[in-house]
């Protein structure tokens, strides 16, 4: 199954200047728990913002640059190539982890979207695409716990593609 995993605000902002805008440890833990042991696909800019391959995952990076040679990543030149390589490595779920352009390309290919919705508004320059309501339905929603470490109101939501 191809799954998109993303955190965004009420206007679908996902970042600014190639960085996350908010710090939400509960979302980072959620992301780690879901993606551990699986293949993750990201664009070059997302990889550069993370700064390293994420441990215990197959890290596939989509880039037109052929000289990107970093330990722990598998370089792919298209999203389709990355998905094929991920499928050849494992029959497990494949997670698309960003950024904006990769999300836009992956949306028609995805089976599920795991979205952390921050119930707030941030100033950003990167956005998650709008989800057409006739193509996606919420199959799970859970309100997150706000505390001193997680200062924003948020919800974990799972969308399933409508067949």
UniProtKB/TrEMBL annotation:
Database matches in Pfam families: DHFR_1 (PF00186)
Spans traversing the lipid bilayer: none
Record has Oxidoreductase as a keyword: yes
Organism, scientific name: Aquirufa rosea
Catalytic activity as recorded in UniProt: (6S)-5,6,7,8-tetrahydrofolate + NADP(+) = 7,8-dihydrofolate + NADPH + H(+)
E.C. number(s) listed in UniProt: 1.5.1.3
GO biological process, one term: dihydrofolate metabolic process
One GO cellular component term: cytosol
Sorted UniProt keywords: NADP, One-carbon metabolism, Oxidoreductase
InterPro entries, alphabetized: DHFR, DHFR-like_dom_sf, DHFR_dom
Span of domain DHFR: 1-161
Protein function: Key enzyme in folate metabolism. Catalyzes an essential reaction for de novo glycine and purine synthesis, and for DNA precursor synthesis.
Domain of life where this protein originates: Bacteria
Top EC group: oxidoreductase
Designated name of the protein: Dihydrofolate reductase
Family per record: Belongs to the dihydrofolate reductase family.
GO molecular-function term, one example from the UniProt record: NADP+ binding
Biological or metabolic pathway of the protein: Cofactor biosynthesis; tetrahydrofolate biosynthesis; 5,6,7,8-tetrahydrofolate from 7,8-dihydrofolate: step 1/1
Presence of the UniProt keyword Acetylation in the record: no
């Amino acid at each position: 199954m191809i799954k998109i995993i993303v955190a965004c605000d009420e206007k679908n902002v996902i970042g600014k200047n190639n960085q996350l805008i908010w710090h939400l440890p509960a979302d980072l833990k959620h992301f780690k728990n879901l993606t551990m042991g699986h293949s993750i696909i990201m664009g070059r800019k997302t990889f550069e913002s993370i700064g390293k391959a994420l441990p215990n995952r197959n890290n596939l990076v989509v880039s037109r640059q052929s000289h990107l040679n970093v330990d722990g990543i598998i370089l792919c030149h298209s999203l389709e190539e990355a998905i094929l390589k991920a499928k050849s490595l494992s029959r497990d779920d494949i997670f698309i982890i960003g950024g904006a352009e990769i999300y836009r390309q992956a949306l028609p290919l995805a089976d599920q979207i795991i979205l952390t919705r921050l119930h707030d508004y941030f100033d950003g320059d990167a956005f998650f695409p709008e989800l057409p309501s006739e193509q996606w339905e919420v199959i799970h929603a859970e309100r997150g716990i706000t505390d001193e470490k997680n200062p924003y109101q948020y919800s974990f939501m799972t969308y399933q593609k409508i067949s």
